[in-house]
């Protein structure tokens, strides 16, 4: 049997966020493993088989020139969007010629590189969009200001179409994609002021800092979905899924079901058990009490959604054949692994308010135990760096193809435009 291309690649991913702070697509990093030559045509066939029309758009980012050349040479119209690094384009005339041929076939290309090195009009015509990185002073140097002040700040920035070489700092271009933004204010400027096609990744640290004085609350949209599902008498599986799509809602629910006010005889250590013991009437009344205080801040949606994506991936990474209860526990472990970002307090303090299993405490706080490997791998797969993925793959004896298929299945189950879709 011929070896699958997924045995020769190390894959990683990064979410792309739109103006509504919802999922606009997924960037998929393609690393050829040392000594391997990956069959890119085979990869495209696999993606066509896996990806549905409801799945988020894909941006392929090959990390080797050979992989890029193979995709440029063979990808047909309708293939995922393809990033072409600007420095490779300048250094290799062969890549430029292949890009011309690919564009003529109708392939959607994305120029990737620094904002101050964007190509001139002749080259720019080959690309449907750009994935632009900003200089360090630009990536971090915009303060957190109200939207009105941000608009005033951006008034001196004149977009150019088509892109042309410019040395002026922060001369942002309308309608393009941006990456590596460290400032929430700059992400707002790109998305709201310049109608960016997407922001790759999210400035998590600055978002946490910006909302540090705001009491953490579940998202209003998620609470309304759950209330509507109860009204429609949806199944317990649906209710559990909706509850698990907001880390703050799941956390508040666990605290409530274990509170002295309810007086339950045994500790509730899972969302499913809490739903069964609480009852739908009590749950609906509790949600109604929470709703007036719910969070409506859209800038927090990417952070919460990334926590859900990590949980979904970790849930699929634990050893095949484990029971459904352990899969749910792994999901909860990963979902709560970043609670400190939302609660603005030590993670150990937040977790010890709930009667969670020792397996969760060991994985999240000590990085040990049966869940530690899956949690670490779910984190590593969020990065363009292949080295940690390969190291964990070797330490925990994951088959390369199995790992890649798990990641692709998780990604193709998502839906664009939603904070977190049905599993």
Describe this structure in words.
Helix content is 48%, strand content 11%. It has 423 residues and is of the alpha/beta class. The protein has 3 domains: 5-210, TIM Barrel, CATH 3.20.20; 220-293, no CATH class; 302-412, no CATH class. It has an 8-stranded mixed barrel, surrounded by 5 helices. Helix 2 (65-74) links the parallel strand 3 and strand 4. The longest helix has 17 residues, at 301-317. Mean pLDDT is 89; it is low at 141-169.
CATH topology of the largest domain: TIM Barrel
Succession of helices and strands:
EEHEHEHHEHEHHEHEHHHHHHHHHHHHHH
Provide the low-confidence segments as ranges.
141-169
- Number of DSSP E strands: 8
| Order of strands, widest sheet | 1-2-3-4-5-6-7-8
Would you tell me the overall average pLDDT?
89
Shape: globular
- Rg, alpha carbons: 23 Å
What is the distance, rounded to the nearest whole angstrom, between the alpha carbons of the first and last residues?
32 Å
Contiguous helical run count: 22
Output the CATH class name of the largest domain. Alpha Beta
CATH-defined architecture of the largest domain: Alpha-Beta Barrel
Largest sheet: 8 strands, mixed, barrel
Q: What is the helix fraction of residues, given as a range?
A: 40-55%
**How many domain modules?**
3
Q: Give the strand content.
A: 5-15%
- Derived from helix and strand composition plus strand pairing, the structural class reads alpha/beta
